Amino acid sequence: MTARAGASxxxxxxxxxxxxxxxxxxxxxxxxxxxxxxxxxxPGWVEALASFFxxxxxxxxxxxxxxxxxxxxxxxxxxxxxxxxxxWPWQRKPGQEEPPELQPEPARARRLLGEADALAGExxxxxxxxxxxxxxxxxxxxxxxQLVRPALTSRDIAALEGIPPAPRSAFxxxxxxxxxxxxxxxxxGAEDWRDCRTAYEEFAFAESWRR
Length: 211
Hints:
mainly alpha
């Protein structure tokens, strides 16, 4: 008896649910079918702009790499000029198209040779050659403060393009002699002194200093 009562109640619940569902579907105020979403049309000017950029994009890439390469070259050129001591063309003052001469004053060069000769006369050839080199560097630094920098070695200074070729070659002979003495452990004798004295005369009194 109890089982029949339970089954009857279940049937009634199902019929009530089905009736409520039919009533819900019959209600026109409730929307069950949703329309499919459609993207709004793209404005014509947007399509034209996108097409334009797609067309010129390869050219923009080329322009970008050209600008980047030019920037890198500019930076490297600036670094090279910085280490060489040269000035940018626009940094020169009016009427100073050429840098000031680096050639030592003749009277000063002769006094230096006299001091070095005195050392060499005592057999102190290495000291005499060192004196010529270091005073030469001082002369260059005094006349062109932007050329000789603290980080530069004597060999670096001997390679500076701010010094004309012939005096630079003579200066390099002084540098090599000093390097043989300081770093090579070689003692410098009278022959080395004569060669270096001649080299200094070529450096100090060379006509090739005239630009």
